[in-house]
Amino acid sequence: MIVLNKPWTNILLKLPPPRTFPQVITRLKETYRVWMSIHRDFPKVERLGIGNKIEQAFLNCLELVFCLSYLPPEHKIPMLDKAITRFDVIKFFVQLAWESKLIPTEKYSAFTSDLEEIGRQLGGWKKGLQSKTPRP
Question: What is the pLDDT of residues 97-107, one digit of tens each?
């Protein structure tokens, strides 16, 4: 509960407790922030081409993973498959950008280690769901 005392009014705001999300969402958000700093250094043409492609894939993946946290378990696996596919697209285009010398090697190696960890987390989430969810 937050109380704001102003000379002209007292406002009582009831805020819900913060929602906890799966760790993969937090890691994906942090990695996206790193991507934004890398993306800013792209030349304009590449930033609007492959840079935007990676950007949109990141945003789509973030949206899918966020929405996954609200779904019932039986509906999560198909959407998780979509998120993993979208994430694979990110990894592919990031590698292409590095091969095109748009991302310096030192940034690429640190960035891809984050991507690998997220991939393991998504795969582990799917494996856990598959073991808990009965097959039809």
Answer: 999 999 999 99
- What token pair was written down for 60? 């789509």
Residue 131 structure tokens: 């073991």
Q: How many CA atoms lie within 13 A of 93 on its CB side?
A: 19
d(CA 126, CA 118) in angstroms, rounded, equals: 12
Q: Which of 51, 60, 121, 117 is nearest to 85 (CA)?
A: 60
Joined together, the tokens standing for residue 72 give: 């019932």
Indicate the residue type of 79: M
Q: How far is the C-alpha of 133 from the C-alpha of 115, rounded, in Å?
A: 27
Q: Which domains does the chain have, with CATH numbers?
A: 18-132 (1.20.1440.60)
Q: H or E segment at 19?
A: none
Is residue 112 within 8 Å of residue 94, measured between CB atoms? yes
Q: Supply the angle between the helices 73-99 and 52-68 in degrees, to the nearest 10.
A: 160
Summarised one tens digit per residue, pLDDT across range 29-82 is 999 999 999 999 999 999 999 999 999 999 999 999 999 888 887 888 999 999
For residue 47, the tally of other CB atoms under 10 A from its CB is 15
